[in-house]
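Our consortium's second objective concerns turning raw sequence data into structural hypotheses that experimental partners can test. To show how far this objective has progressed, the report includes one record in full. It was chosen at random from the queue rather than selected for favorable results. The single chain below, 118 residues long, was entered without modification.
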Amino acid sequence: MQRHLVPAFVAAALCVASHGAFAQQLTEQQVTGRQVFAQSCGVCHLPPVMNARTYGPALSKATAGGNAEIIRAIISEGGPRMPAFKHYLERPQMDAVIAYLSTVPAPPPAPAPAAAPR
């Protein structure tokens, strides 16, 4: 039996395609944002492929309360576990990612942990 390995960029593109499958129509800016998101953010923020670990939280329109300025600041300056992208992404690219995220539904709330038996 011969195995075929899927290149990482193809796997990431498939994840983004499924991540964006909910959208009826994306604007040109949102499509660009989806592409930038896949290339720059997907390694940490998209669902894992082949049991890989996800380092960052799932992002959606609920991220940072939907506040574009907060999201832009986080993308630009980074955070404790996230690198700054201010020297890597230009403002229009950040705006495109923010526009794309505004189309991503918020994930359902996590189920409450089961009570320990007595």
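The partners drew two points from this record. Residues 58 and 111 are 16 Å apart (CA to CA). Confidence is low (pLDDT under 50) at residues 1-18. Both points have been shared with the crystallography group to help prioritize constructs.
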